[in-house]
């Protein structure tokens, strides 16, 4: 049994039938939904992380690619968590570049919000920040693919956590009117995170742009404001 087969077998041993039944509804894998056709075996994220901890250091990128191309959602998610571990643990700039290139080359398999959110800012966001290469994320924000756009905005989390908001604001405005609810939520979430780190800059941005924000984006962004201030924004009284 090779490493990929071992990982798949280990994940299968942790599969829960009730989760396998629930996850397709939770992750919108039904007909006509954004993750139509995605398949689940029912492994929770904490259990996936146990497998990741055991295997990340001895799995190759070629093997991660095999796991990442699986139709099974938990296989792909575990593959991405292993990739994050590899990126975070390596001290080699050459190895980091290789992992970033691998991520971009295989992004067609990063096709649900949890796959994006649990990997992109820890790899692409960090790399863009540390190499002073915001174009990496700006190019993704220009792509037509929904997941590329979500990768771009969520990757700015690495900047936001360090109190840098310019790139976030550019990418939010670039896709503010995107039609998909997943982008409305992501934009609002990252703006809320900006508010946690820089309230003055957040409020200035919000006052300037809240009238043009989709309702979901605005609601996510203002979630932590006082009830009265939230109502002022929602009713356009600012």
Automatic annotation (TrEMBL):
SUPFAM superfamilies: ARM repeat
Superkingdom of origin organism: Bacteria
Gene3D superfamilies reported for this sequence: 1.25.10.90
Pfam families: DNA_alkylation
Signal sequence residues: none
Protein name: DNA alkylation repair protein
Originating organism: Kaistella pullorum
């Amino acid at each position: 049994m090779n490493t990929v087969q071992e990982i798949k077998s280990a994940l299968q041993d942790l599969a829960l039938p009730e989760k396998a039944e629930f996850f397709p509804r939770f992750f919108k894998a039904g007909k006509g939904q954004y993750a139509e056709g995605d398949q689940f075996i029912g492994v929770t994220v904490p259990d996936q992380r146990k497998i990741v901890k055991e295997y990340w250091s001895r799995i190759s990128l070629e093997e991660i690619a095999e796991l990442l191309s699986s139709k099974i959602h938990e296989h792909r998610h575990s593959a991405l968590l292993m990739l994050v571990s590899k990126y975070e643990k390596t001290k080699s700039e050459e190895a980091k570049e290789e992992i970033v290139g691998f991520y971009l080359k295989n992004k067609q398999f990063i096709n649900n919000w949890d796959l994006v959110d649990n990997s992109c800012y820890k790899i692409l966001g960090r790399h863009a920040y540390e190499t002073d290469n915001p174009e990496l994320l700006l190019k993704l924000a220009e792509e037509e693919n929904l997941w590329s756009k979500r990768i771009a905005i969520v990757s700015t989390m690495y900047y936001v956590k360090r109190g840098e908001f310019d790139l976030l604001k550019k990418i939010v405005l670039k896709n503010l009117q995107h039609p998909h609810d997943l982008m409305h939520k992501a934009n609002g979430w990252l703006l809320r995170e900006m508010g946690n780190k820089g309230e003055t800059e957040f409020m200035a941005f919000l006052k300037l742009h809240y009238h043009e924000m989709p309702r979901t984006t605005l609601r996510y962004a203002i979630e932590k404001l006082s009830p009265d201030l939230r109502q002022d924004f929602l009713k356009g009284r600012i």
